[in-house]
Amino acid sequence: MACRSKLHHILLSVVCVILFSYAGAYDPLDPTGNITMKWDIMSWTADGYVAVVTMTNFQMYRHIMSPGWKLGWVWAKKEVIWSMVGAQATDQGDCSKFKGNIPHCCKKNPTVVDLLPGVPYNQQIANCCKGGVVASWGQDPSAAVSSFQISVGLSGTSNKTVKLPKNITLAAPGGGYSCSPAKIVPSSIFMSPDGRRKTQALMTWNITCTYSQLVASKYPRCCVSMSSFYNSTITPCPTCACGCQNKNKCVLSAPKIQSVVTPTIDNPILHCTEHMCPIRVHWHVETNYKEYWRVKMSVTNFNYFINYTQWTLVAQHPNLNNVTQVFSFVYKPLVPYRSMNDTGMFYGIKFFNDLIMEAGPDGNVQSEMILQKDAYTFTLKEGWAFPRKIYFNGEECMMPSPDQYPRLPNSAPANLFPVSLRAALLAICLLVFC
Ligand SMILES: *[C@@H]1O[C@H](CO)[C@@H](O)[C@H](O)[C@H]1NC(C)=O
Ligand SMILES: *[C@@H]1O[C@H](CO)[C@@H](O)[C@H](O)[C@H]1NC(C)=O
Ligand SMILES: *[C@@H]1O[C@H](CO)[C@@H](O)[C@H](O)[C@H]1NC(C)=O
Ligand SMILES: *[C@@H]1O[C@H](CO)[C@@H](O)[C@H](O)[C@H]1NC(C)=O
Ligand SMILES: *[C@@H]1O[C@H](CO)[C@@H](O)[C@H](O)[C@H]1NC(C)=O
Ligand SMILES: *[C@@H]1O[C@H](CO)[C@@H](O)[C@H](O)[C@H]1NC(C)=O
Ligand SMILES: *[C@@H]1O[C@H](CO)[C@@H](O)[C@H](O)[C@H]1NC(C)=O
Ligand SMILES: *[C@@H]1O[C@H](CO)[C@@H](O)[C@H](O)[C@H]1NC(C)=O
């Protein structure tokens, strides 16, 4: 496609950025979403304590994907980590002043990562060793937890002398998290498996980390395109929807040899498109029945060397209160405010389409859904049939501007079939790279 001048690109990017209003740290579709970290001191030792750290992802549709989380903090005193179970510090640091027993990590600011699946049992504890991958609460609460055990020395040995770690950071692929200071909370209570005995942590503190798209990335990382049976025009993603700063790094076909540096979400190798987004979500209004209507959704991956595991898609549309059937995706209504039921999440079926493959012929997933009409609100006019918001993996996607939405022809169409056929064909073309 014709290359526009640099100035044109810059102007467009500026317009795109202005058009795209970020949600900030507060996500209106998941107002209480956060990742909470809990440190439970289970025992005091001669020079410190043993704690179990539990990270729970309370976010409804934002997971931590591979290669997983990295947790960092700064010790308040001269603490060292004697040992860890279920996780490890990435850098031991300078332990030269220790003789005999050498600590696991002597750094003032340790960085801890989860262990990989399949480590020996004596290095595991419950909810560990998933390579730092943590599911979203909406998709799988049982997999939304990650834990490790840490044995700390040269620290206080009572709840009066222990100092809490400072400057806690949670890094995840794609970034975007900031964490509160640790705060002492009432000690956790644990139930024995048979429910007949209660035990209590000696001391507990919590840290809450929240996500902000603005912190995560200057540009959006997904966009929305649209089409309909009643108009053969396909509304593409806005040009430079995800910023054109990588325009000269993109490629037109799968690179033969993988570069030395493995591409990551933060540093991808993209297929060249006008929008330059790693992910495009296409919403096609497919059919209008008497009492129902039908939507086709497809998600296309433009990343080479990046597979999206456990992906999630969130849509906001007033008719989602009346979803009748969803094919080949799982659907779960999200009801952040009790009075509104206009938001829901979609995700893949395990072992079938919960993985979106890297860019190429298999780099997409699709689904259709049938919605029951409410005679008073349903209309094909004014873009009503298109979503208000789309999120992919918890990031808001850039929408086309409303004046670009497919519009109803002014005259009532006499025969919809050829038009819908044409639109369907175009939609198929759109699935292949545009
Ligand atoms: C974190 O999320 C949980 C579950 O949604 C919620 O109960 C809690 O209030 C949240 N914490 C903060 C500090 O927002
Ligand atoms: C501390 O975090 C846990 C989740 O790990 C949560 O259940 C608990 O309510 C939190 N406590 C406070 C006071 O926020
Ligand atoms: C410390 O422990 C004592 C009892 O061992 C308890 O009374 C006190 O409330 C605890 N203080 C804190 C800050 O947890
Ligand atoms: C914690 O972070 C703040 C701001 O980034 C910095 O000013 C401060 O020095 C840090 N504290 C420690 C102990 O590193
Ligand atoms: C993506 O998944 C496919 C199929 O499981 C695999 O062959 C490929 O190596 C994966 N690519 C990456 C970058 O993990
Ligand atoms: C929300 O809508 C779904 C159908 O999409 C329905 O199954 C669910 O019961 C509704 N929930 C509430 C709280 O209205
Ligand atoms: C779904 O639509 C029907 C028909 O308009 C309506 O009677 C019903 O209340 C709707 N269901 C919900 C959950 O809004
Ligand atoms: C289809 O929609 C486009 C974009 O809104 C509009 O410009 C065009 O006139 C519409 N086509 C017809 C046949 O109405």
Oligomer: single chain
Span of the ends, CA to CA: 10 Å
Radius of gyration: 25 Å
What share of residues is helical? under 10%
**Strand-residue fraction?**
25-35%
Number of helices, counting only DSSP H or I runs of 4 residues or more: 3
- What is the CATH topology descriptor of the largest domain? Immunoglobulin-like
Number of domains: 2
Arithmetic mean pLDDT: 87
Total beta strands: 28
CATH architecture of the largest domain: Sandwich
Question: What spatial form do the alpha-carbon principal axes imply?
Answer: elongated
Q: Which residue ranges are poorly predicted, with pLDDT under 50 across at least 5 consecutive positions?
A: 1-24, 411-434
CATH class category name of the largest domain: Mainly Beta
List the ligand species. 2-acetamido-2-deoxy-beta-D-glucopyranose
Estimated structural class: mainly beta
Q: For the report, how would you describe the main beta sheet?
A: 7 strands, antiparallel
Family: Belongs to the COBRA family.
Subcellular location: Cell membrane
GO cellular component, one term: plasma membrane
GO biological process, one term: plant-type cell wall cellulose biosynthetic process
